[in-house]
Amino acid sequence: MSRSTANAFVADLTPHPLSDRAGDVMTAVEDPATAPFQASLFASGEAELAEARSTQRVRLDARCWVDHRPDWLRGADDLFVELQHALPWRHGRRNMYDRMVDDPRLTAQVEIDDPRLPDVVGSIVHSLSARYDRRFDKMFCNFYRSGADSVAWHPDRVGRHQIDPLVAIVSLGGPRTFRMRPRGGGKSRSFVLHSGDLLVMGGACQHRWEHSVPKQTRGAPRISLTFRHDAPEPSAPEPSAPEIRAPGPDSH
Asked: CB within 10 Å: which end of the chain, N or C, has fewer?
Protein backbone atom coordinates (compact mmCIF):
# COMPACT_ATOMS: atom_id res chain seq x y z
CA MET A 1 0.00 0.00 0.00
CA SER A 2 1.27 3.52 -0.78
CA ARG A 3 2.35 5.73 2.12
CA SER A 4 0.72 9.06 2.77
CA THR A 5 3.10 11.97 3.18
CA ALA A 6 1.08 12.87 6.25
CA ASN A 7 1.82 9.52 7.86
CA ALA A 8 1.92 9.70 11.66
CA PHE A 9 3.85 7.42 13.92
CA VAL A 10 1.82 4.42 14.69
CA ALA A 11 1.18 1.87 17.37
CA ASP A 12 -0.70 -1.33 17.03
CA LEU A 13 -1.19 -3.92 19.68
CA THR A 14 -3.38 -6.98 19.57
CA PRO A 15 -4.97 -8.88 22.44
CA HIS A 16 -4.17 -12.42 23.41
CA PRO A 17 -6.31 -15.20 21.89
CA LEU A 18 -9.88 -15.33 23.10
CA SER A 19 -9.81 -19.09 23.62
CA ASP A 20 -8.36 -18.73 27.13
CA ARG A 21 -11.53 -17.10 28.45
CA ALA A 22 -14.34 -19.23 29.89
CA GLY A 23 -17.33 -19.59 27.59
CA ASP A 24 -15.53 -18.52 24.41
CA VAL A 25 -15.99 -20.51 21.21
CA MET A 26 -13.40 -20.62 18.41
CA THR A 27 -14.34 -21.79 14.91
CA ALA A 28 -11.80 -22.59 12.18
CA VAL A 29 -12.06 -20.45 9.03
CA GLU A 30 -10.52 -21.76 5.81
CA ASP A 31 -9.51 -19.33 3.05
CA PRO A 32 -11.28 -16.31 4.58
CA ALA A 33 -12.99 -13.82 2.28
CA THR A 34 -11.80 -10.22 2.42
CA ALA A 35 -12.48 -6.83 0.97
CA PRO A 36 -10.73 -6.19 -2.37
CA PHE A 37 -6.97 -6.04 -1.96
CA GLN A 38 -4.45 -4.73 -4.47
CA ALA A 39 -0.80 -5.12 -3.62
CA SER A 40 1.41 -2.08 -3.94
CA LEU A 41 4.37 -2.17 -6.31
CA PHE A 42 6.51 -0.83 -3.45
CA ALA A 43 5.43 -3.58 -1.02
CA SER A 44 5.60 -6.53 -3.43
CA GLY A 45 8.31 -9.08 -4.06
CA GLU A 46 10.17 -11.47 -1.79
CA ALA A 47 9.77 -10.58 1.87
CA GLU A 48 13.00 -9.41 3.51
CA LEU A 49 14.07 -6.97 6.21
CA ALA A 50 15.32 -3.50 5.39
CA GLU A 51 17.64 -3.21 8.37
CA ALA A 52 19.16 0.06 7.16
CA ARG A 53 15.97 1.93 8.07
CA SER A 54 16.35 4.23 11.06
CA THR A 55 14.23 3.92 14.18
CA GLN A 56 12.53 6.90 15.78
CA ARG A 57 11.23 6.87 19.34
CA VAL A 58 8.01 8.64 20.29
CA ARG A 59 7.52 9.44 23.99
CA LEU A 60 3.84 9.15 24.95
CA ASP A 61 4.55 10.21 28.52
CA ALA A 62 7.39 10.00 31.02
CA ARG A 63 7.18 6.19 31.23
CA CYS A 64 5.78 5.07 27.86
CA TRP A 65 7.38 5.03 24.43
CA VAL A 66 6.88 3.74 20.89
CA ASP A 67 9.63 2.82 18.42
CA HIS A 68 8.56 3.18 14.79
CA ARG A 69 10.49 1.94 11.77
CA PRO A 70 8.58 2.55 8.51
CA ASP A 71 9.03 0.15 5.58
CA TRP A 72 11.06 -2.22 7.75
CA LEU A 73 9.77 -5.26 5.88
CA ARG A 74 10.03 -5.30 2.09
CA GLY A 75 7.52 -7.45 0.21
CA ALA A 76 4.94 -7.06 3.00
CA ASP A 77 1.92 -7.20 0.66
CA ASP A 78 3.02 -10.51 -0.84
CA LEU A 79 3.59 -11.86 2.68
CA PHE A 80 0.06 -10.75 3.54
CA VAL A 81 -1.36 -12.87 0.70
CA GLU A 82 0.78 -15.86 1.70
CA LEU A 83 -0.26 -15.76 5.36
CA GLN A 84 -3.90 -15.15 4.51
CA HIS A 85 -4.00 -18.67 3.03
CA ALA A 86 -1.40 -20.40 5.22
CA LEU A 87 -2.33 -19.53 8.81
CA PRO A 88 -4.96 -21.43 10.87
CA TRP A 89 -7.44 -18.56 11.16
CA ARG A 90 -10.23 -18.83 13.71
CA HIS A 91 -13.35 -16.80 14.37
CA GLY A 92 -14.19 -16.27 18.02
CA ARG A 93 -17.54 -15.91 19.76
CA ARG A 94 -17.74 -14.87 23.38
CA ASN A 95 -20.35 -14.33 26.04
CA MET A 96 -21.12 -10.66 26.53
CA TYR A 97 -24.13 -9.18 28.27
CA ASP A 98 -25.76 -12.63 28.52
CA ARG A 99 -25.51 -13.37 24.81
CA MET A 100 -22.92 -14.74 22.39
CA VAL A 101 -21.20 -12.06 20.31
CA ASP A 102 -19.01 -12.56 17.21
CA ASP A 103 -15.53 -11.10 17.36
CA PRO A 104 -15.16 -8.58 14.50
CA ARG A 105 -11.88 -10.05 13.21
CA LEU A 106 -10.10 -13.39 12.78
CA THR A 107 -7.19 -14.56 14.91
CA ALA A 108 -4.38 -17.10 14.62
CA GLN A 109 -1.84 -18.36 17.13
CA VAL A 110 1.16 -20.24 15.75
CA GLU A 111 4.53 -21.34 17.08
CA ILE A 112 7.54 -19.43 15.84
CA ASP A 113 8.96 -22.62 14.28
CA ASP A 114 5.69 -23.63 12.57
CA PRO A 115 6.60 -25.05 9.13
CA ARG A 116 3.77 -23.05 7.54
CA LEU A 117 5.62 -19.82 8.29
CA PRO A 118 8.06 -18.43 5.70
CA ASP A 119 11.72 -17.97 6.61
CA VAL A 120 11.32 -14.20 6.96
CA VAL A 121 9.38 -14.71 10.21
CA GLY A 122 12.50 -16.27 11.71
CA SER A 123 14.50 -13.27 10.48
CA ILE A 124 12.01 -10.92 12.16
CA VAL A 125 12.28 -12.78 15.47
CA HIS A 126 16.09 -12.85 15.33
CA SER A 127 16.34 -9.15 14.52
CA LEU A 128 13.92 -8.10 17.28
CA SER A 129 15.60 -10.31 19.87
CA ALA A 130 19.04 -8.91 19.03
CA ARG A 131 17.88 -5.29 18.94
CA TYR A 132 15.93 -5.31 22.21
CA ASP A 133 17.86 -7.96 24.16
CA ARG A 134 14.70 -10.00 24.72
CA ARG A 135 13.89 -13.52 23.54
CA PHE A 136 10.84 -12.95 21.36
CA ASP A 137 9.26 -16.39 21.17
CA LYS A 138 5.51 -15.89 20.81
CA MET A 139 3.50 -14.74 17.79
CA PHE A 140 -0.18 -13.88 17.60
CA CYS A 141 -1.98 -12.61 14.50
CA ASN A 142 -5.11 -10.55 13.87
CA PHE A 143 -6.82 -10.51 10.48
CA TYR A 144 -8.95 -7.45 9.73
CA ARG A 145 -10.81 -8.67 6.66
CA SER A 146 -12.21 -5.24 5.78
CA GLY A 147 -12.86 -1.88 7.38
CA ALA A 148 -15.82 -3.46 9.19
CA ASP A 149 -13.45 -5.51 11.37
CA SER A 150 -12.08 -3.84 14.48
CA VAL A 151 -10.88 -4.23 18.06
CA ALA A 152 -12.30 -2.28 21.02
CA TRP A 153 -10.39 -0.32 23.65
CA HIS A 154 -8.23 -2.57 25.81
CA PRO A 155 -4.75 -2.93 27.33
CA ASP A 156 -2.69 -5.98 26.40
CA ARG A 157 -2.94 -8.83 28.90
CA VAL A 158 0.81 -9.41 29.00
CA GLY A 159 0.94 -6.42 31.35
CA ARG A 160 -0.83 -8.49 33.99
CA HIS A 161 2.17 -10.74 34.58
CA GLN A 162 5.17 -8.76 33.30
CA ILE A 163 6.51 -5.36 34.27
CA ASP A 164 6.98 -3.03 31.30
CA PRO A 165 6.86 -5.71 28.58
CA LEU A 166 7.86 -4.98 25.00
CA VAL A 167 5.39 -5.83 22.23
CA ALA A 168 6.47 -5.70 18.58
CA ILE A 169 4.01 -5.42 15.69
CA VAL A 170 4.59 -5.86 11.97
CA SER A 171 1.74 -4.64 9.77
CA LEU A 172 0.84 -6.26 6.44
CA GLY A 173 -1.71 -5.11 3.87
CA GLY A 174 -3.90 -2.04 3.98
CA PRO A 175 -3.30 0.96 6.26
CA ARG A 176 -5.50 1.31 9.34
CA THR A 177 -6.03 3.97 11.96
CA PHE A 178 -4.86 2.94 15.40
CA ARG A 179 -5.88 4.89 18.49
CA MET A 180 -4.31 5.11 21.93
CA ARG A 181 -5.56 6.83 25.06
CA PRO A 182 -4.59 6.91 28.72
CA ARG A 183 -5.97 3.89 30.52
CA GLY A 184 -9.38 4.62 31.99
CA GLY A 185 -10.21 7.28 29.42
CA GLY A 186 -8.98 10.62 28.18
CA LYS A 187 -8.10 12.31 24.92
CA SER A 188 -6.91 9.86 22.30
CA ARG A 189 -4.07 9.96 19.80
CA SER A 190 -4.60 8.62 16.29
CA PHE A 191 -1.90 6.97 14.14
CA VAL A 192 -1.75 5.16 10.80
CA LEU A 193 0.29 2.00 10.23
CA HIS A 194 1.25 1.00 6.67
CA SER A 195 2.27 -2.30 5.11
CA GLY A 196 5.77 -3.33 6.17
CA ASP A 197 6.02 -1.00 9.17
CA LEU A 198 7.50 -2.16 12.46
CA LEU A 199 6.09 -0.73 15.67
CA VAL A 200 7.41 -1.60 19.14
CA MET A 201 5.62 -0.47 22.28
CA GLY A 202 7.70 -0.27 25.44
CA GLY A 203 8.03 1.17 28.88
CA ALA A 204 4.76 1.14 30.83
CA CYS A 205 2.45 1.22 27.78
CA GLN A 206 0.68 -2.00 28.84
CA HIS A 207 0.00 -0.58 32.32
CA ARG A 208 -0.86 3.06 31.57
CA TRP A 209 -2.41 3.11 28.07
CA GLU A 210 -5.07 1.26 26.10
CA HIS A 211 -5.60 1.02 22.36
CA SER A 212 -8.15 0.21 19.66
CA VAL A 213 -8.48 -0.31 15.92
CA PRO A 214 -11.80 1.32 14.96
CA LYS A 215 -14.01 0.44 12.04
CA GLN A 216 -13.13 2.24 8.83
CA THR A 217 -15.14 2.97 5.69
CA ARG A 218 -13.74 1.18 2.63
CA GLY A 219 -10.82 -0.21 4.63
CA ALA A 220 -8.52 -2.68 2.86
CA PRO A 221 -7.77 -6.03 4.54
CA ARG A 222 -4.85 -6.09 6.96
CA ILE A 223 -2.91 -8.65 9.03
CA SER A 224 -0.96 -7.67 12.13
CA LEU A 225 1.82 -9.92 13.38
CA THR A 226 2.40 -9.39 17.10
CA PHE A 227 5.56 -10.71 18.78
CA ARG A 228 6.01 -11.09 22.54
CA HIS A 229 8.77 -12.30 24.85
CA ASP A 230 9.21 -14.00 28.20
CA ALA A 231 10.07 -11.91 31.24
CA PRO A 232 13.61 -10.48 30.77
CA GLU A 233 16.50 -10.85 33.17
CA PRO A 234 16.62 -7.99 35.71
CA SER A 235 19.86 -6.64 34.21
CA ALA A 236 18.53 -6.40 30.63
CA PRO A 237 18.99 -2.78 29.43
CA GLU A 238 16.37 -0.71 27.66
CA PRO A 239 17.71 0.16 24.19
CA SER A 240 17.74 3.79 23.16
CA ALA A 241 16.60 5.35 19.90
CA PRO A 242 16.34 8.86 18.45
CA GLU A 243 13.34 10.59 20.02
CA ILE A 244 10.70 12.82 18.51
CA ARG A 245 7.67 14.46 20.03
CA ALA A 246 4.44 12.50 19.92
CA PRO A 247 1.56 13.83 17.79
CA GLY A 248 -0.84 16.08 19.67
CA PRO A 249 -4.04 14.65 21.11
CA ASP A 250 -7.28 14.80 19.15
CA SER A 251 -10.89 14.82 20.32
CA HIS A 252 -11.86 11.24 19.40
From this structure: C
